[in-house]
From TrEMBL:
The chain crosses the membrane at residues 126-143, 149-168, 189-212, 240-258, 367-392, 462-481. CDD domains: MFS_PhT. It comes from Rhynchosporium agropyri. It comes from the Eukaryota. It is found in: Membrane. InterPro entries: MFS_dom, MFS_sugar_transport-like, MFS_trans_sf, Sugar_transporter_CS. Gene3D superfamilies: MFS general substrate transporter like domains. This is Probable high-affinity phosphate permease, phosphate-repressible.
Length: 549
């Protein structure tokens, strides 16, 4: 080993030195990759982790707001565009279902398309593009107007499909980027922090609806009910729904710059771009709060030609457990979540002496459902059904809604991670589409014309039974979900010996082969030195590793 190989960056800068000088003495590119990624896995939690969570989380906030705001808006659309002798200010069930399904339909396209592109052309190139689509489509929705050539329903469906494509792209990208930048210790917490912004988005939509309703109180109180909301009241409602929808573009505009300037993840640069030099310097840059590393270009190109063929490519995984669990969850989660206003009416929570009271109670009811874990008891007095519904909403987010987002972003090799996450998420949105298509016709089965409240949804209890059955099916998929706690992404992808990454397979394997074997493990994936990178040797191994190569 030459002394030059062990030198730090010129000038004695011990705080930030280049990958070439740290690991140039290691000839095996797989070993160099392992050591560099171990620095990310073992790094202390810092501001660069907070920044990654905030940048991804703001986008998820926007996604959730845009998805669930329509739940509050459809009743307003009925007053503005369907206040005639036929509909009496209520949006037709077919139009209501089509508007809600359109977002999920676009989301499926976005999850599959952006997930695949993120694995092919890179996370950085795709991140931000989906947010631009969301911003543009959201503003376009708020500027929609009815005409004889095309109905308001058709226009909103078109723009919500486009918005859904952008939202769908955010699912795999936000999950994968967060997981690939996270440390092993904090990865689950970071990914869950990003997902938690979904609840904040729902909460903001309900709060804004309450604020807007209060702001137009004078105009709304002029109408005793939905049918009587004409003239000044109708104009106020027209302004209200545009404000609620249009606000969804504001957080997206705030996050756009940071998404467009986020660095490429080192894992993608290693495993897909196969650029060992660039990935190594990117690791160091990221750890020191820099956007990206700047290796010597001649050395980088030379190293790519020499080391790229030696980097092993893991096989694509099978993740039917994550896919099926997300499907079963979203059937009930979106089947209920996008119809909160209808369910609140069936429970008997909505209603009032004026149109203002109707909108106000609807907004407060949605606030209660979002804040399920911290609702004062007086809100629930006399409303036992509402209490049970609140409890169900709490456990949606307490358990499966978090794990279905986290697990697919952890358990697949880098080359297939975004595609796999997109496929799993898309299966969930297919479930959401099925739920919406089935919910509307079944809910109103046997209802009398112009029925209100509970009488308008005579089959709602049977729909709850159906959703409960899907949740039971989701329970059984839990036995197939891998345990990811304190495991590196490389261990979960099957690249490291000594760990079986599948839940049920791990249990069965212990009975036959023991826990010391990993299915389809290829030693070449981690280089020539098959040693654990523990806490004790993480600081010194990068200088000692040359002796074992």
């Amino acid at each position: 080993m030459s002394s030059a190989a062990m030198n730090k960056t010129d000038g004695g800068n011990n705080a930030f030195h280049t990958f070439n000088n740290d690991f140039a003495h290691i000839q095996d590119p797989n070993e160099r990759r392992r050591l560099a990624l171990a620095e990310i896995d073992k790094a202390p939690f810092g501001w660069y982790h907070v920044r990654a969570c905030v940048v991804a989380g703001i986008g998820f906030f926007t996604d959730s707001y845009d998805i669930f705001a329509i739940n509050l808006v459809t009743s307003m659309l009925g007053i503005v565009y369907f206040n005639d002798k036929k509909s009496h200010g209520t949006i037709p069930p077919s139009s209501d279902t089509a508007i809600k399904v359109s977002t999920s339909g676009g989301t499926v396209i976005g999850q599959l398309g952006f997930g695949y592109l993120a694995d092919v052309v890179g996370r950085k190139r795709m991140y931000g593009l989906e947010l631009i689509i969301i911003i543009f489509a959201t503003l376009a929705q708020a500027l929609n107007s009815n005409s004889r050539a095309i109905s308001i329903t058709g226009l909103i469906i078109f723009w919500r499909v486009l918005m859904g494509i952008g939202i769908g792209g955010d699912y795999p990208l936000s999950s994968v980027i967060t997981s690939e930048f996270a440390t092993t210790k904090w990865r689950g917490a970071m990914m869950n922090a990003v997902l938690a912004m979904q609840g904040i988005g729902q909460l903001t939509a309900a709060i804004l609806a309450l604020i807007v309703t209060t702001g137009f109180k004078g105009s709304l109180e002029s109408a005793a009910n939905t049918r009587a909301c004409t003239g000044v009241c109708q104009l106020a409602v027209d302004k209200m729904w545009r404000i609620i929808i249009g606000f969804g573009a504001v957080p997206g505009c705030i996050a756009l710059y940071y998404r467009l300037t986020i660095p490429e993840t080192p894992r993608y640069t290693f495993d897909v771009a196969r650029d060992v030099e660039e990935a190594g310097t990117d690791v160091k840059a990221y750890m020191n709060g820099k956007a990206e590393g700047h290796p010597d270009e001649i050395a980088r190109v030379t190293a790519m030609a020499q080391t790229a063929p030696a980097l092993e490519i893991p096989k694509p995984p099978s993740r039917t457990s994550a896919t099926s669990s997300w499907f079963f969850l979203d059937v009930a989660f979106y089947g209920l979540g996008l119809n909160n206003s209808i369910i609140l009416a069936a429970i008997g929570w909505t209603g009032g002496a004026t149109q203002y009271e109707i909108f106000r109670k609807n907004a407060i009811g949605n606030l209660i459902l979002v804040c399920a874990g911290a609702i004062p008891g007086y809100w629930l007095s006399g409303h036992a059904l509402l209490a049970l519904y609140v409890l169900a909403q709490f456990f949606f987010n307490f358990g499966p809604n978090s794990t279905t987002f986290i697990v697919p972003g952890e358990c697949c090799p880098t080359r297939y991670r975004a595609t796999s996450h997109g496929f799993s998420a898309a299966s969930g949105k297919v479930g959401a589409i099925i739920a919406q298509v089935v919910f509307g016709p079944l809910r109103t089965r046997g209802a009398l014309p112009n029925a209100k409240g509970r009488d308008a949804s005579p089959w709602l209890n049977h729909i709850m039974y159906i959703f409960a059955l899907f949740m039971l099916c989701g329970l059984f998929t839990s036995f197939l979900i891998p345990e990811t706690k304190r495991k590196t992404l490389e261990e979960l992808a099957g690249e490291v010996p000594g760990y079986v990454p599948f839940g049920l397979v791990r249990t069965l394997g212990a009975l036959t082969n023991g826990f010391d074997r990993t299915p389809n493990f290829d030693p070449a994936l981690i280089g020539g030195a098959h040693r654990a990178y523990s806490e004790e040797d993480s600081q010194g191994e990068k200088h000692r590793g040359v002796d074992s190569v």
